Every structure is written in structure tokens, then in C-alpha cells.
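sry for the spam today, last one i promise. C-alpha cells for design, 203 residues
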């Protein structure tokens, strides 16, 4: 029998302070604590991989299953992707290059970026979401199922890294951002985006 992994957090993953104070519980099963120094809130203990697999299932990523709702969501996400790509173009002065998006959802931003000449890579935790992203990309980029450690051999590869509604889902934000930095080329751009707010979907 596999030994159960201890996911209790002993110190703040951002500032290393070991004074974590209990605040409240969610559904009497998930304890939320706060770091005394930096104010970071986190679950303690952290959810297991099995719990995360249950949380990030098809319903979480794919949203409203009604056809009209799905079409409406898709139009909103595509419009948001174009706006962000225009912002990116104004900042960089050019399009194209190697672009990584971590947590691409259904791949709307990746598809829009590929249409503007970027070589796109999507890193996604959910296998069901990966299937949808691959379908939406229609062979125009790479989709990798897993976590940031799986890109450890791609240091200084990317011109742009995009995150939207991701950082709060990581177990160790500082370690996560350190890995993003190593993946970027010198002078590469890291763009954390606010999530597109979809009516009826929790963010």
C-alpha cells in the first residue's frame, strides 16, 4: 500500500515565515490559513493529487454544457484573446516567436496567437481540457498535459509566457514563478492576465 503523502504546509511558500494562522474552513474539510508576515492565504493541508483531479474535471474547464452557453462563452473568450494580443503587440512592437500559455483552458488564446504567427505551446493540468485544446488548435501548436516541472529542459526557450487565472491554483507560487522566469529568453515577456469573467462560471 502506497504511503499517504503529508501535504501539511510548515511555512509560507512566498516568504518562508513559519507563523501560519487558521482563519476559517470551507465545507468543514479545507482549512484556510494566513501568513502573519505577507498575508498570503492558502489551504493547509494542501489538496491531494486525487482531490485536484476531481476538482479540475471536464465540468470545471469546459463550462456550460448548453450549446448556446458554449457559443456565447467562446465568442467572449475569442474577443478577449484578440484584445490581449493587441496589448501584447503594442508592448513588444511585433508578433511572432515562441509563446507559452500555462492553464489555457479551452485554448482560445493559443488559437488566436497561432493565427497571428506565434509558435504556441499550452501547458494544461486537465487531460480532458487538453483534448479540447488540441481540437481547437487544429495542429497549429503543442499541448502538454501536466505541470511546470515537465518543461524543465526548455530553459530560455520562450519569448512570451501568458498566465490567466492560474497563480492562485499553484501549491508554491514562488517556485512556480521561478520556473516561468527560467523558461523565458533574456528579455522575454511574462504577462499575467486577469481571467475573462464568464457569467455563471466560478473563477
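last one done:
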Amino acid at each position: 500500500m502506497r504511503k499517504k503523502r503529508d501535504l501539511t504546509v510548515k511555512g509560507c511558500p512566498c516568504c518562508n515565515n513559519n507563523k501560519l494562522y487558521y482563519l476559517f474552513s470551507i465545507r468543514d474539510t479545507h482549512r484556510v490559513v494566513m501568513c502573519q508576515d505577507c498575508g498570503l492565504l492558502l489551504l493547509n493541508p494542501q489538496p491531494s493529487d486525487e482531490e485536484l483531479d476531481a476538482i479540475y474535471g471536464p465540468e470545471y474547464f469546459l463550462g456550460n454544457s448548453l450549446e448556446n452557453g458554449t457559443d456565447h462563452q467562446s465568442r467572449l473568450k475569442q474577443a478577449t484573446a484578440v484584445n490581449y494580443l493587441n496589448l501584447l503587440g503594442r508592448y513588444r512592437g511585433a508578433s511572432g516567436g515562441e509563446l507559452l500559455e500555462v492553464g489555457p483552458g479551452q485554448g482560445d488564446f493559443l488559437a488566436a496567437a497561432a493565427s497571428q504567427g506565434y509558435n504556441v505551446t499550452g501547458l494544461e493540468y486537465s487531460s480532458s481540457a487538453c483534448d479540447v485544446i488540441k481540437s481547437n488548435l487544429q495542429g497549429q501548436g503543442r499541448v502538454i498535459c501536466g505541470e511546470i516541472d515537465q518543461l524543465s529542459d526548455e530553459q530560455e526557450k520562450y519569448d512570451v509566457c501568458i498566465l490567466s487565472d492560474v497563480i492562485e491554483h499553484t501549491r508554491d507560487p514562488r517556485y512556480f514563478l521561478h520556473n516561468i522566469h527560467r523558461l523565458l529568453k533574456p528579455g522575454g515577456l511574462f504577462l499575467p492576465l486577469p481571467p475573462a469573467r464568464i457569467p455563471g462560471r466560478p473563477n
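Strands lie at 20-26, 30-35, 41-43, 97-102, 118-124, 141-145, 158-164, 184-193. ok im logging off now
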